[in-house]
Amino acid sequence: MVNASADTTCVAAHGMCPPNVDLEYVVQTLNHAGFANESICLLLAAGHPLARLMRDLRLLSSEADHAAASSGLVQWLLRLGAVVIPRVGFFIRSRDFLHSLMVEPRTSSCQGIAATLLNLRIPETEAGRLEELIGDSGALVYVACEQFAQSQWAREILRRSGAAETRCLEELPLAQGVVVRKVSRRSLLPKSLQGLPAL
Fold first, then answer.
1. Residues 139-150: tens digit of each pLDDT
2. Contact, 123 vs 117, CB < 8 A?
3. 38-57 confidence digits (pLDDT tens)
4. Which end of the chain has fewer CB atoms < 10 Å from its terminal CB, N or C?
5. Is 128 exposed, middle or buried (0-12, 13-18, 19+ CB in 10 A)?
6. pLDDT value for 103
């Protein structure tokens, strides 16, 4: 799993998905292959269709018809380990993702998507390249794994599910130079659903 402690390694797979890829299908395929929702993080560019929808939900009133229309999407996203829209907001269910996404290297000047990728232990040069690929409307699906063989299987599933580029990650964790990030970004959840218990 993703972890910032100095005595563990980071093993994961990730896939970059264009905006036309059905992320719910990708996650369901991972689930059917045995990957738990808690191990999956979605990183969405601000212009991704899901990101726009989540932004719109925050502006909706709490009327019953709006709640009914949005409940399926919100409940699905709430089951994931984390959903992050850099510079817009996030919500995190997994304790491991919570710890990792709240730290950042002291020496990095990256911001936005690249900074989030760094927190997920993707090397800085790779993070910058992926940020360009994700662009204004793409997404990245990140799957934390226990073993490298598991990450290879996750990568293959991501590839078969429509990811344009997939990679495995196996790195030694950051031993020094991390600082806790202040949580200042707003919740993505509409007010009527904030404070719900994790599913």
1. 999 999 999 999
2. no
3. 999 999 998 898 888 777 76
4. C
5. middle
6. 66
Q: Quick one: how far is CA 24 from the chain centroid?
A: 13
Domain boundaries, the chain: 10-185
Alpha helices of the chain — where are they, by DSSP H? 23-32, 49-59, 64-78, 95-101, 112-119, 124-134, 148-160
The mean per-residue pLDDT over the stretch 106-119 comes to: 71
Going by the DSSP 8-state scheme, the letter that residue 167 receives in this structure is E
pLDDT at residue number 104: 55
Hey, what amino acid is at 141?
Answer: V
Rounded Cα–Cα distance for residues 157 and 159 (Å): 5
Answer yes or no: pTM beyond 0.90.
Answer: no
State yes or no: pLDDT of 71 exceeds 80.
no
Contact 117, 43 (CB under 8 A): yes
Determine how β-strand 40-44 pairs with β-strand 165-171.
unpaired
CA 46/CA 130 separation, integer angstroms: 15
Cβ contact 17:41 at 8 Å: no
Residues whose CB is less than 8 angstroms from the CB of residue 175 and which lie 6 or more positions away in sequence, other chains included: 6
At residue 40, the 3 state secondary structure works out as strand
